[in-house]
Amino acid sequence: MSDDLEPISPVDAVEMFHSAMEDEHSESTRRSEYHRLRAFIQFCDEDGIEDLNELSGRDLYRYRTWRREGKGDGREPIKLVTLKSQLATLRRFLRFAGDIDAVDPELYEQLTLPTMKNGEDVSETTLKPERAIEILDYLESAQPASRDHIVLLLLWETGARSGAIRGLDLGDCDLDGTHPRFTGPAVHFVHRPETGTPLKNHESGTRWNRISQKTARYIEDYIEYHRDEVTDEYDREPLITTRYGRPAGNTFRKVLYRVTRPCWRGEGCPHDRDIDSCEATDIDQASKCPSSKSPHDVRSGRVTFYRREDVPRRIVEDRLNASEDILSRHYDRRSDREQAEQRSDFLPDL
206 in a domain, yes or no? Predict the structure, then answer.
């Protein structure tokens, strides 16, 4: 151990790391980084590492093996992509720890990341466009203008991230189409980190997105009949609300988990489960249904829909506020055959 290091516990160092991220990262990113370090704290506790100064390259190797086997945080063995993301977070933390004289400044270099095979770090889950439309049709019939209906409708029509939808205020909605830049209704996504609703890409994520007249009318009905008349902790008026104010990010995931279960719409279970005893029929356990999807899956389904319809790539990039590489790598779920067929439409016959 270097004589220049200053003693600090793993818990205190992680708290300092989390606090230091406030200036440059969104709250969701900070939460994710903090969550990934919980297993490292548990490892240190079980291994008797009370002072981060004691951490060595050998400890990091043992932690990597320990985590790969699913130890820590009460989990099963984890996928390689999950291990890579957790080790990448730990590496960033160790660089920070080096800056505050908690570990050797070069210790982070001894933590190597697993090498991913081509495409291995890309999720293949998606909400297929045809299924998204079926669910929206059901909501339109059974729960028109409900919060669940509006959440999925906005996620699907705009392709936006759930954090962007969560950050919408009443004043961000031009439902009558009076904005001089548009000929129809639109919503305005705005980066507001100082009042709790940052956008993923910060100021560059601020943008207007057109919505259909039909969607605008449902939003009007939601505001009139179902929206709770509340403000958030910053006295802003959220578009989507709970009785307590602006919903937490987890609320949007729970909505998607719930409405994407086939049994929720009265369909038979495609997984041969007994619906009467299936734990996923409990609202709080909906994520345990193999068919349940997340807001990210809605976004990938929308990209797939746009690509199938040959919407120009630049239009999709601007509307979803993501680069071509990110859209192609993480969101486009067309099969190789579909892509080949679409390319052939633009090629002359031989």
Answer: yes
CB 300 within 8 A of CB 332: yes
Q: Which domain holds residue 50?
A: 10-110
Quick one: CA torsion of 62, 68, 71, 73, rounded to 10 degrees? 110
User: Which residues in 181-213 are b (16+ Cβ under 10 Å) and which e?
Assistant: eeeebbbebbbbbeeebbbbbeeebebbbbbee
Domain count for the chain: 2
Same domain, 98 and 196: no
Question: How many CA atoms, within 13 angstroms, populate the side-chain half-sphere of residue 23?
Answer: 3
The pTM of the full predicted model, rounded to 2 decimals, is: 0.65
Q: Which residue has the higher pLDDT, 301 or 257?
A: 257
**Mean of the per-residue pLDDT values of the chain:** 83
Positive or negative: CA dihedral 99, 105, 107, 108: positive
- The sign of the CA dihedral 321, 322, 323, 324 is negative
